[in-house]
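Hey L., structure's done. Input below.
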Amino acid sequence: MFKAFNLQEFVSAFFVLFAIIDVIGSIPVFINLRKRGKTINAKRAALLALTIFIIFFYGGEAFLLLFGVDLSSFAIAGSLIIFIIAMELILDIEIFKDQPESPKDATFIPVVFPLLAGAGALTTLLSIRSQFADINVLLAILCNIIVVYFVLKAAKRLEKILKPGVIIIFQKFFGIILLAISVKIFTGSLTHLIKTFS
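Output:
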């Protein structure tokens, strides 16, 4: 398996996943969640994201087919959630209302899914798996998860360092980036879906 390792493939897979996971761009979301009293466990988030990526890497298409869901529909659903999160950041409103029984732990939702291991990242994973050797993609996943862990660990420190005005500007800017990503995933998946049906 390790004989198939190729540095160029590994680097390409790493940066494609890094761009779509966009953990740096999600820092304002993490800060916003903490301001709302939510907790994020960096270690558990990293392990959950890694588990989802590995499971989806080997059985993603089969899992979706089990529920009669195609990749495009799955991606569209994820893009709509990312769209709502982006609107919260840009307009400074709360769309995902906290119910009295809502868990204070935001580690899995929305941090792991859909922000880190969302529809866009999972569908991208299946795409690059068809292009690169498995070992290169798996190592790229592992390295991205290590980056995710350290960014989540640093989020609380960044909140203390950055001034409130800077955080607001940061939130608006990356809210627009998230919005653009959600639109790109939505339009791309919808186009593919229309082509499939036609």
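The CA atoms of residues 148 and 194 lie 34 Å apart. The first helix runs from residue 7 to 21.

-- N.
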